[in-house]
Design goal:
20 helices
C-alpha cells in the first residue's frame, strides 16, 4: 500500500508506543521498590544505610546504562540497544525476586538499572528521530505518560499484593513473600517489550549515519511521506557531513570542556532530580508511615499520587506543542517551589504522641494536598519536558553523546538523592523538614536556570539544532 502524502500517522503512533514500553518499564522498575522496602529490611536485616543502598543500587546501573547506551547506540543503533535493555529487564525482574542476600539483590537491581538507564535515553532519542517536528513534543511526551503509568501500575500492584497477602513481608503464593512477587509482576511487560521491539524499524537518522540511506528513506517514506523522504535523507546527510561524525568527542569544546548545549543538558537532568521527586516515588510508603499513616494507607496514597500524575502528564501532552517547552518548565519550577515549601511547614509541625509520629489537626491533610500538588506540577512540566528537551535539543552529531552525558548526570543525581533520604530521615536535626527544605530551594533555583539558559525548541527540525 503506498504511503500517504503526509506519512502514516498510525505507523508513527505504533512505533512510538512500542518504544515507550521501555518508559513503562522504567517507571515500573522505579516504583516497585516503594512497596518492598519493609520486606527488604526484614529479609536482609538492613539498617538505614543498607536500606538506602538496596533502594539506590539500581541507580548506579541507571547512570552507567545511560552513559554507555548513547555511545553504543551510535555504533549499533537505537533499536538494538532497546532490545538489549528488554533482556536486562527480564533478568533483573526475576533475579530481584529470588535474591537471598543484599549483595545478590543489588547485583540484579544494577542489571535492571542498566536497562532503565538505557531505556531512559534511547526511547526519547528514538522517538525524536522518528517523529515529524510538528508532532515531536506530543509523541515524545508519551514517554512520560508511559513512565508514570508504569509507576502507577507498580503502586497498584504493590498495594493489591500486600493487601491480599496481609503485608509486604507476609508469605503469599507458593510460600514466597509478597515483596518478591512485586518484582516478578514486571516479567509480563518486559517480555512484551522484547517481542514488540522486533517489529519496529531502526531510527532513520542512525541508518543514514551508518551508511544505510536506502533503508532510512524507506522508513521516512512511511513516517513523512514519499515526497518528503528523499529531502529529509539529504538534510540528515548534510547535518552529519564533513567532520561532524557521530563521535563522543563531539560533546566537548576547546580545552576539554563540554559544549554549552551539553552543560545545559546536564543542568536540566540534574535539576529534575534535585527537586526530590523520586523520594516520593521510591520512599512514598515509608515517608507517609513516618508521619503516622499505616502501611496500607501509605500504599494507597501512592496509588492516588500515581493516578493524579497520569492526568498531569496528559495535560502537558496537550500543551507542549502549543505553548512550548520553556513555559511549562517555568510553571513547574515555580509550582514545585511553592508546594515543597508548604510540605516543609507541614513536616515541621510533626509531633510524637504515645511514641508515634503524627501531624496535628489539619496539617496532615495540608501535607497530602501539597504533596499531590507537587507531583502534579512535576508531571505537568519537568517530568515529560526534560526528556522531550534532551531528546531534541542536541545537534545530530552530539545527540548520542549529549544524551549519554546528561543521562549519566540525571541518574547520579537520582542516586545521591535516593541514598541520602533515609539517612536524613534518621538524622534528628535534618529529618523530613530539612530534606524537603533542600528540595524546595533546588526548585526555586531551577526557575532561574530555565529563565537564563534554556531556549525554546518547539517546532524546530532536529537538523536545525546547534551547539
Amino acid at each position: 500500500m503506498p504511503a500517504k502524502a503526509g506519512g502514516d500517522f498510525a505507523f508513527i503512533l505504533l512505533i512510538t508506543c512500542v518504544a515507550t514500553i521501555g518508559g513503562f518499564l522504567f517507571g515500573f522498575d522505579s516504583g516497585v521498590i516503594n512497596g518492598t522496602v519493609d520486606g527488604l529490611q526484614v529479609a536482609f536485616q538492613s539498617d538505614s544505610v543498607g536500606t538506602g543502598f538496596n533502594v539506590a543500587s539500581m541507580l548506579l546501573g541507571c547512570a552507567f546504562g545511560a552513559a554507555f547506551a548513547g555511545w553504543l547506540s551510535d555504533k549499533f543503533g537505537r533499536r538494538t540497544m532497546m532490545i538489549a535493555a528488554a533482556i536486562f529487564f527480564i533478568i533483573s525482574a526475576w533475579g530481584s525476586g529470588i535474591a537471598g542476600s543484599s549483595g545478590e539483590f543489588m547485583f540484579y537491581r544494577v542489571l535492571g538499572g542498566l536497562a532503565v538507564g538505557a531505556a531512559s535515553v534511547m526511547a526519547p532519542a528514538y522517538i525524536s528521530e522518528i517523529a515529524p517536528a510538528h508532532l515531536r513534543g506530543r509523541l515524545s511526551s508519551i514517554q512520560q505518560v508511559a513512565i508514570i503509568t508504569g509507576l502507577f501500575v507498580a503502586f497498584l500492584s504493590n498495594y493489591a499484593i500486600a493487601n491480599t497477602a496481609g503485608s509486604s513481608t507476609s508469605e503469599w503464593m507458593w510460600g514466597f513473600e509478597a515483596w518478591r512477587w512485586m518484582f516478578w509482576v514486571e516479567l509480563v511487560p518486559a517480555t512484551i517489550f522484547l517481542v514488540a521491539l522486533l517489529a519496529i524499524p531502526e531510527s532513520p537518522r542512525f541508518l543514514v549515519a551508518s551508511g544505510n540511506g536506502e533503508r532510512a528513506e524507506g522508513v521516512l517514506t512511511r513516517v513523512a511521506g514519499a515526497e518528503a523522504a528523499g529531502l529529509k535523507v539529504q538534510e540528515i546527510r548534510d547535518s552529519l557531513s564533513s567532520d561532524q561524525k557521530l563521535r563522543f568527542a563531539d560533546a566537548f569544546a576547546a580545552k576539554g570542556v563540554f559544549k554549552p548545549i551539553v552543560w545545559i543538558g546536564i543542568g536540566l537532568a540534574t535539576f529534575q532530580q534535585l527537586v526530590g521527586i523520586n523520594v516520593i516515588f521510591y520512599y512514598g510508603a515509608i515517608l507517609w508511615q513516618a508521619v503516622g499513616f499505616s502501611e496500607g494507607d501509605a500504599l494507597l496514597i501512592n496509588v492516588i499520587s500515581g493516578a493524579v500524575s497520569i492526568l498531569a502528564v496528559l495535560a502537558a501532552l496537550m500543551l507542549i506543542d502549543r505553548i512550548g517547552r520553556r513555559p511549562l518548565l517555568l510553571i513547574g519550577s515555580a509550582g514545585m517551589a511553592l508546594t515543597l515549601a508548604i510540605m516543609v511547614f507541614a513536616f515541621s509541625q510533626a509531633q510524637v504522641v504515645d511514641g508515634a509520629v503524627t501531624l496535628p489537626g489539619n496539617i496532615g491533610v495540608m501535607a497530602l494536598i501539597a504533596a499531590n500538588a507537587y507531583v502534579v506540577f512535576f508531571n505537568f512540566s519537568w517530568g515529560p519536558v526534560m526528556w522531550v528537551a534532551l531528546g531534541e535539543m542536541f545537534p545530530n552529531a552530539v545527540r548520542g553523546s549529549g544524551l549519554a552525558i546528561s543521562g549519566f548526570a540525571q541518574w547520579i543525581s537520582n542516586f545521591a538523592i535516593t541514598l541520602t533520604f533515609p539517612m536524613m530521615l534518621a538524622t534528628a536535626w535534618i529529618g523530613l523538614t530539612g530534606a524537603y527544605a533542600f528540595y524546595a530551594v533546588s526548585a526555586a533555583i531551577s526557575v532561574a536556570f530555565v529563565w537564563y539558559f534554556v531556549r525554546e525548541t518547539r517546532g524546530m527540525e532536529l537538523e536545525d539544532m546547534t551547539s
